[in-house]
TrEMBL record:
Keywords: Cytoplasm, Repressor, Translation regulation. NCBIfam families: rsfS_iojap_ybeB. Belongs to the Iojap/RsfS family. Coiled coil: none annotated. GO terms for molecular function: ribosomal large subunit binding. One of its GO terms (cellular component) is cytoplasm. The gene is rsfS. GO terms for biological process: cytosolic ribosome assembly; negative regulation of ribosome biogenesis; negative regulation of translation. This is Ribosomal silencing factor RsfS. It is found in: Cytoplasm. InterPro entries: Iojap/RsfS/C7orf30, NT_sf. Functions as a ribosomal silencing factor. Interacts with ribosomal protein uL14 (rplN), blocking formation of intersubunit bridge B8. Prevents association of the 30S and 50S ribosomal subunits and the formation of functional ribosomes, thus repressing translation. Interacts with ribosomal protein uL14 (rplN). It holds the Pfam family RsfS.
Length: 139
């Protein structure tokens, strides 16, 4: 039961990261469920940015989201790298790539068997609606 709640919280964090990336004009956002594949973390959030400045902007916004709303200090790797910044939030790892770097490294190809969820505006509205209906039912 406790393990299930931890997984749910990690997924909620992954969705929060995806929402922030979408708000900052991130593209091709993909959440990979690695709960059965990796022991160190639960989810990868893969994000494509249209420019090197946007890579930095999205990574900074994710770091702020984690700090303010999750009370968590994330580690940023490559924050001055114009093509790839990794945001380590413990159980969720966000990779913010410039388009060419994402294609070159192909992280999603390394985890082909992992369940995946493409994130877009419609998907996040649906997730938020489910969350709101669950909290209304509890009240």
């Amino acid at each position: 039961m406790v393990k299930r709640k931890i997984k749910d919280l990690a997924l909620e964090k992954a969705h929060a990261i995806a929402r922030v990336a979408l708000e900052k004009e991130g593209e091709d956002i993909l959440v990979l469920d690695l709960t059965k594949s990796a022991n160190i973390f639960n989810y990868f959030v893969l994000i494509t940015a249209g420019s090197s400045k946007r890579v930095q902007s999205i990574a900074k916004a994710i770091d702020e989201e984690l700090s303010v709303n999750w009370k968590q200090n994330a580690r940023l790797e490559g924050k001055n790298n114009p093509s790839w910044t990794l945001v380590d939030a413990g159980d969720v790892i966000a990779h913010v790539f410039y388009k060419d770097a994402r294609n070159f490294y192909g992280i999603e190809r390394l985890w082909l068997s992992a369940p995946r969820e493409e994130i877009n505006e419609k998907c996040l509205k649906k997730t938020l609606k489910k969350k709101l209906s669950k909290s209304s039912a509890k009240a």
